[in-house]
């Protein structure tokens, strides 16, 4: 049993380790309190730092993550936009040349004024003069003020701008590229440069080079060439060959300073623009001008209501020398209506459209709004009308011109010969119809050549009947009249519904089709088919682009003649051509005659509709007839009859409405003008040679007898004025060129010729009457138009100097004659 230890005085009792750190009440001692306090402070500090760190740096980290990861592409683009200049360089569009190298379309350097509304915003300071941040409201007020100033400055620089549009664009601060104005010419660009330099606008307002399309010949070949708009080639050749012409734009990408100045460094990227290729056309600017002049003159002369069209082509190759359609327009201002008739029609159409809109005004627009809408639609319709080419994108009834195709088919099949006889009583009964001839009195008995020359409908109804509908269709297809020609121009008309189905063609349909009525083809198809009749029998593909070349002239593509098929034999072609030549020399095409040239062809007159006041008159002519170098289709749509609403066959001046009386007289001189230009030599017959211009010999100082002998040797006559035996003066003077057979005036003694005289009116006179009337006044007549001037039916249609005008005595007056032709 243990005993308790004794307590020694002055010595504290021993304590356990537990008791050493714990008081009697369980409270820590001062030592433990210090240690615990330090740990607590550390923990609280770390916690506080963690919380503060999260609160302070968390949003920053998140923002960095948002910028660098989530919206990397967006912010990279913003930085790139702020730090770089990136703009395209326009490629030079290729030129278009005519067949002789004359520039029909070209591009020249212009400029466009560019504004960056976003960079304009960057020019507004965000701090005051002492470097303190501006209040938000103050800054926004400064921004608005700067934008208003920019609007005012732009309106002062370019008053033609729309202020509302300018204000809207300037305030679109998310945009860095707005084309304020394009197509700025160098003269105006220089004025802008001075302003831009003076105001140091390079960071937000600057000029960029661009190109603009110019057409040096204005409206020449307008529908064929087409034009360029903001999207590139819009019509014509410009549209078809847009990919060839436009080239590839270049690009410049460089750094820029805060002030917008371009910095050149190793990071700059330059991609050169690749210019477009050039085109050389088959179109000849001179021949095109001849054609367009002829179209315009005919429209005025015959009071044409629905325009005209024409095509000039090489019948052997298919190369188009000229192609035109009215109304025309200026390619440099392609949206402007310049044709008087079209302007008048536009006003009428606006009224009709207005009435239609007003009747169905579901939008409850005001009268002024309806009229504005109607005028806009009428303008758009008129623009589309002038941009169209009737020679390509319209179908028409060819009329008697088509008889050449029927003739060739029948000759090829051996169904007719030149010795065949045809009787015409003035009409022919087919099934239940009485179909009249153009000559209602009848052509009576005639051989094939006469029947073609007379454009006799009953004869061709008989020829069509011999062919039958199956052969008719076979040749219709063979001559390319059931398919597009494939010309390299846009808008070739669809042929759907243009002709009856073979199974539905009856006797009446075959009869009317045989003389070119009640079916439709395009003018381009007709000239190609006619060419096959007279060029040896080959259907050729028409084309307008001869070659494609680089800017330095290296040809990369050249168009060769493409023969689609041989339709008839060369022998048949020659027989048909011989017959068609006599249409001009002896038949309804006589008004196309020109001395010195062998012209063949066929007239046409198509009655459109049943009102009797809409006829399309045409003529297809080619020359020289023995070796065709050129073929011309000329057509005038709807000469205005002097009595509307009736089957009136005359216009106001008394001209009979027909292709022979209207188209042929215009086509003959056109063909001669083209052949002269091409250098085709004239070959005169014996009768023609007698009337060819000759130089007047000098006979002054001679006796009257000697003078008569000298003039007779030149096929000239004379008459005297005054008394005496010695010629003192002569009219015309020596060396003047006058037609053979003319009468020279010899003045004797003191007789003096008048210096000028009034030109008499010879229109409507016969050849001899007109010649005598002019010579009585001291003028000389050069006749053209028909091969036989002495016929009683041959009368003067026009004269080169208007009746009543004063002209120098001895002047040569050109007088065109014509025969009244019933080929309608």
Please provide a brief summary of the model.
The chain is of the alpha+beta class.
Describe this structure as you would to a colleague.
The protein has 824 residues and is an alpha+beta fold. The chain is 36% helix and 21% strand. It contains 24 helices and 34 strands. Strands 2, 3, 4, 5, 11, 19 and 20 form a seven-stranded mixed sheet that branches. Helix 11 runs antiparallel to helix 21 and helix 17 crosses helix 18 (507-514). The longest helix has 41 residues, at 30-70. The radius of gyration is 45 Å and the shape is elongated.
Output the keywords.
824 residues; alpha+beta; seven-stranded mixed sheet; five-stranded antiparallel sheet; elongated; disordered N terminus
Overall pLDDT level: 88
Tally of helical runs: 24
Biggest β-sheet description: 7 strands, mixed
Oligomeric state of the chains? single chain
Strand content: 15-25%
Helix content: 25-40%
Instruction: Describe the global form.
Output: elongated
Distance between the termini: 163 Å
Low-confidence stretches: 1-26
Structural class by helix and strand composition: alpha+beta
Number of strands: 34
Query: What is the CA-atom radius of gyration, in angstroms?
Result: 45 Å
Detail the topology: elements first, then pairings.
Blueprint: H1 17-21, H2 30-70, H3 72-83, E1 84-89, E2 96-97, E3 103-115, H4 117-121, H5 136-157, H6 163-170, E4 178-184, H7 186-199, E5 205-214, H8 222-225, E6 228-229, E7 232-233, H9 236-240, H10 242-246, E8 250-256, E9 262-263, E10 269-271, E11 278-281, H11 285-301, E12 308-313, E13 320-325, H12 340-359, H13 367-387, H14 390-393, H15 403-412, E14 421-424, E15 427-430, E16 433-436, E17 444-447, H16 448-453, H17 457-478, H18 507-514, H19 523-534, E18 538-540, E19 545-549, E20 555-558, E21 563-566, H20 570-585, E22 600-607, E23 615-623, E24 630-637, H21 663-678, H22 686-691, E25 693-695, H23 704-713, E26 717-721, E27 727-731, E28 737-739, E29 743-748, E30 756-758, H24 767-776, E31 780-784, E32 794-799, E33 806-808, E34 812-819
Parallel strand pairs: 2-11, 26-29, 31-34
Antiparallel strand pairs: 1-8, 2-3, 3-4, 3-5, 6-7, 8-9, 8-10, 11-19, 12-13, 12-24, 14-17, 15-16, 18-21, 19-20, 22-23, 23-24, 25-28, 27-29, 30-33, 32-34
Helix pairs in contact: 5-6, 11-21, 12-13, 15-17, 15-20, 17-18
């Amino acid at each position: 049993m243990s005993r308790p230890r004794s307590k020694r005085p002055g010595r504290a009792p021993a304590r356990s380790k537990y008791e050493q750190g714990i008081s009697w009440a369980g409270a820590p001692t001062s030592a433990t309190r210090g240690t615990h306090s330090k740990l607590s402070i550390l923990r609280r500090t770390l916690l506080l730092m963690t919380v503060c760190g999260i609160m302070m740096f968390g949003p920053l980290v998140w923002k960095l993550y948002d910028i660098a990861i989530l919206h990397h592409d967006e912010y990279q683009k913003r930085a790139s936009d702020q730090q770089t200049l990136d703009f395209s360089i326009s490629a030079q569009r290729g030129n278009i040349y005519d067949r002789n190298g004359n520039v029909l379309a070209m591009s020249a350097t212009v400029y466009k004024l560019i504004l960056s509304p976003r960079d304009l915003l960057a020019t507004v300071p965000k701090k005051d003069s002492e470097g303190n941040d501006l209040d938000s409201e103050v800054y926004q007020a400064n921004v608005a003020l700067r934008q208003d100033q920019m609007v005012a400055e732009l309106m002062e620089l370019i008053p033609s701008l729309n202020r509302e549009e300018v204000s809207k664009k300037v305030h679109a601060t998310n945009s860095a590229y707005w084309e304020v104005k394009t197509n700025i010419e160098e003269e105006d660009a220089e004025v802008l440069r001075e302003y831009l330099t003076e105001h140091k606008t390079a960071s937000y307002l600057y000029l960029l080079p661009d190109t603009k399309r110019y057409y040096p010949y204005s409206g020449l070949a307008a529908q064929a060439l087409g034009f360029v708009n903001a999207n590139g080639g819009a019509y014509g050749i410009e549209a078809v060959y847009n990919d060839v012409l436009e080239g590839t734009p270049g690009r410049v990408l460089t750094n820029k300073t805060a002030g917008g100045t371009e910095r050149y460094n190793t990071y700059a990227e330059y991609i050169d623009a690749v210019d477009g290729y050039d085109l050389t056309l088959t179109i000849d600017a001179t021949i095109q001008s001849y054609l367009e002049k002829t179209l315009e003159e005919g429209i005025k002369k015959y009071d044409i209501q629905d325009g005209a069209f024409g095509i000039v082509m090489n019948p052997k190759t298919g190369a188009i020398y000229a192609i035109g359609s009215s109304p025309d327009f200026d390619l440099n201002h392609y949206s402007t209506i310049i044709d008087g008739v079209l302007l008048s029609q536009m006003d009428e159409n606006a009224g009709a459209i207005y009435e239609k809109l007003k009747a169905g005004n579901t939008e409850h627009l005001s009268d002024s709004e309806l009229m504005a809408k109607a005028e806009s639609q009428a303008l758009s319709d008129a623009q589309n009308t002038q941009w169209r080419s009737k020679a390509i994108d319209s179908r028409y009834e060819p009329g008697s011109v088509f008889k050449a195709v029927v003739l060739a088919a029948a000759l090829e099949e051996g169904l007719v010969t030149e010795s065949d006889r045809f009787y015409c009583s003035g009409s022919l009964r087919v099934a239940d119809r009485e179909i009249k001839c153009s000559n209602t009195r009848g052509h009576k008995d005639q051989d094939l050549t006469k029947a073609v020359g007379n454009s006799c409908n009953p004869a061709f109804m008989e020829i069509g009947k011999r062919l039958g509908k199956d052969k008719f269709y076979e040749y219709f297809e063979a001559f390319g009249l059931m398919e597009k020609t494939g010309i390299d121009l846009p808008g070739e008309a669809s042929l759907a519904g243009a002709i009856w189905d073979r199974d539905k063609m009856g006797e009446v349909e075959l009869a009317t089709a045989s003389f070119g009525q009640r079916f439709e083809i395009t003018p381009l198809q007709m000239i190609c088919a006619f060419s096959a009749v007279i060029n040896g029998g080959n259907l050729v593909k028409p084309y307008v682009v001869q070659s494609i070349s680089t800017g330095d002239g290296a040809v990369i593509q050249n168009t060769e003649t493409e023969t689609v098929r041989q339709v008839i034999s060369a022998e048949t072609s020659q027989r048909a051509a011989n017959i068609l030549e006599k249409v001009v020399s002896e038949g309804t095409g006589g008004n196309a005659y020109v001395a010195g040239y062998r012209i063949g062809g066929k007239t046409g007159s198509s009655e459109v509709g049943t009102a009797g006041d809409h006829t399309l008159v045409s003529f297809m002519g080619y020359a020289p007839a023995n070796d065709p170098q050129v073929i011309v289709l000329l057509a005038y749509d709807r000469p205005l009859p002097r009595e509307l609403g009736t089957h009136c066959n005359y216009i106001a001046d008394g001209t009979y409405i027909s292709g022979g009386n209207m188209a042929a007289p215009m086509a003959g001189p056109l063909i001669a003008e083209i052949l002269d230009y091409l250098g085709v030599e004239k070959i005169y017959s014996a009768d023609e040679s007698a009337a060819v211009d000759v130089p007047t010999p000098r006979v002054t100082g001679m006796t009257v007898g000697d003078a008569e002998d000298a003039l007779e040797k030149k096929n000239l006559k004379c008459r005297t004025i005054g008394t005496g035996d010695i010629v003192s003066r002569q009219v015309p003077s020596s060396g003047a060129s006058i037609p053979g057979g003319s009468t020279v005036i010899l003045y004797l003694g003191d007789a003096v010729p008048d210096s000028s005289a009034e030109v008499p009116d010879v229109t409507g006179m016969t050849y001899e009457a007109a010649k005598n009337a002019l010579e009585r006044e001291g003028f000389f007549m050069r006749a053209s138009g028909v091969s036989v001037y002495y016929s009683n039916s041959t009368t003067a249609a026009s004269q080169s100097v208007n009746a009543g005008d004063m002209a120098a005595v001895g002047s040569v007056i050109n007088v065109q004659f014509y025969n009244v032709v019933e080929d309608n």
